[in-house]
Amino acid sequence: MTPTPLPRLVERRPREGHVHPAVKGDIARVLRFFGEPYLYGLRSIELVQQNVVAGDNLLMGRLVVPGRIILYDQPPSPWLLPRGLSAKAIDKLYHAGAVVEEGSPGAHTVVSWPGATLRDYMLFDVLMHEIGHHLIQQYTGKRRARVVRTKDHEAFAGHVARQCRLLYESRDDTASGGATSGGTASL
To answer: Among 13, 18, 50, 61, fewest CB within 10 Å belongs to which?
Structure first.
């Protein structure tokens, strides 16, 4: 049986002083692991320079329907964020393997990504999250119109990302005798 073809993978040079934490080979490996149900209707995944102004927020990625996922370049670790983070955001980063150091209330936050944790964050918490959004749009037949409330879209995409991370890491557990690759904790 012939494997499902991958979507077009495009990697553009990151901005000066920025990186693409997950590269085309990482993305291809994850997509091949999850296979056809996640690839159907997916046209392209593009690693691009972030040229969108989002205030103090770091944009990680987005889905452009139908079937185009954009992953933005990021500053290398550690990140110096100009403000504090919510408890929910800190918990999410912690479970993705980041080390979060908060300054005084309302002050800056330092987020460090040991080992391959930033790459894994981009693969699961960003890429697979955006694929979760794609799945909702693709399998409802409503390729361009939003089919559920934003809150429900985000909940489903988050669920897909968490389940994909768990499934992928359990594959690593079996292959390595119990140790997960990169030492990341699952969400």
So the answer is: 13
- In angstroms, rounded to a whole number, what is the distance separating the alpha carbons of residues 71 and 50? 9
pLDDT at 152: 85
On the question of pLDDT at 146 being above 70, the answer is no
Cis before 76? omega within 30:
no
Task: Evaluate the omega torsion of the peptide bond into residue 105 and state whether it is cis, within 30 degrees of 0.
Answer: no
The Cα 103–Cα 90 span in angstroms is 13
Backbone angles phi, psi at 38, to 5 degrees: -90, -15
Q: 92-101: long-range contacts (C-beta < 8 A, 24 or more apart)?
A: 92/125, 92/187, 93/121, 94/185, 95/185, 95/186, 95/187, 96/120, 96/121, 96/124, 96/125, 96/184, 96/185, 96/187, 97/121, 97/182, 97/183, 97/184, 97/185
């408890």: which residue's tokens?
Answer: 87
pTM of the model: 0.83
Pairing of strands 44-48, 68-72: parallel
8 Å CB contact between 102 and 109: yes
pLDDT tops 90 at residue 138: no
Return the SS3 of 157: helix
For 97, the 3-state DSSP assignment is coil
